[in-house]
């Protein structure tokens, strides 16, 4: 099995790879034919996909958030988890889709990769072991365990 999932990126301004294809028009028959196991898209587009019965994933969702907007809410996470049944990860992007911070498997915030000095950052070691500063988003492990129970 290929370690990189077939990912449909439903937004313009990203580079394609062998396993990640860009569909700037959003979900359509081309994406369905591609058969992604993961989707990466702006949060508002993911919310709209919830009612689409053609979307069947088995890996993950990546929700793009941007400066000037709120991060994923608990309601967003619950909605997306219940609709797709896969883990949801947030990526905080800059105006040109550059990756500024990314959520890890511990779901304890977003690890800062670039910039973000203007935001309140947590600096203690993350549950995943990373020492990178994090944008606080709240601990998710207990909530995820409860959802899976």
Any overview of this molecule?
The protein has helices at residues 29-34, 43-49, 74-84, 141-148, and strands at residues 7-9, 20-22, 38-42, 60-66, 88-93, 99-103, 110-112, 121-122, 134-135. It has 149 residues and is of the alpha/beta class. It has a domain at 7-106: 3-Layer(aba) Sandwich (Rossmann fold). A nine-stranded mixed β-sheet has the order 2-1-3-4-5-6-7-9-8.
- Taken as a percent bin, the fraction of beta residues is 15-25%
Structural shape: globular
- Mean pLDDT figure: 86
Q: What is the number of helices?
A: 4
Poorly predicted tracts of residues = none
* CATH architecture descriptor text of the domain at 7-106: 3-Layer(aba) Sandwich
Output the CATH class name of the domain at 7-106.
Answer: Alpha Beta
Give me the side-by-side strand order of the main sheet: 2-1-3-4-5-6-7-9-8
Element-level helix/strand string: EEHEHEHEEEEEH
Portion in helices: 10-25%
Q: How many extended strands?
A: 9
From the helix content, strand content and strand pairing, which structural class follows?
alpha/beta
Biggest sheet, open or closed, and with what strands and sense? Answer: 9 strands, mixed
Question: What is the fold-level CATH name, i.e. the topology of the domain at 7-106?
Answer: Rossmann fold
* Cα radius of gyration in angstroms: 15 Å
Ends distance: 28 Å
């Amino acid at each position: 099995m290929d370690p990189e999932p077939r990912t449909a990126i439903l937004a313009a301004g990203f580079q394609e790879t062998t396993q990640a294809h860009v569909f700037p028009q959003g979900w359509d028959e081309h994406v369905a034919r591609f058969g992604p196991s993961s989707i990466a898209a702006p949060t508002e587009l993911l919310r709209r996909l919830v009612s689409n019965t053609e979307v069947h994933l088995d890996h993950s969702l990546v929700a793009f958030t941007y400066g000037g907007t709120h991060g994923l809410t608990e309601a967003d996470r619950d909605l997306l988890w219940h609709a797709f049944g896969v883990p949801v990860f947030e990526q905080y992007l800059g105006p040109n889709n550059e990756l500024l911070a990314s959520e890890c498997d511990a779901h304890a915030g977003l690890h800062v990769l670039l910039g973000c000095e203007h935001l309140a950052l947590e600096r203690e070691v993350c549950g995943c072991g990373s020492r990178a500063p994090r944008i606080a988003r709240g601990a998710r492990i207990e909530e995820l365990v409860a959802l899976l129970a």
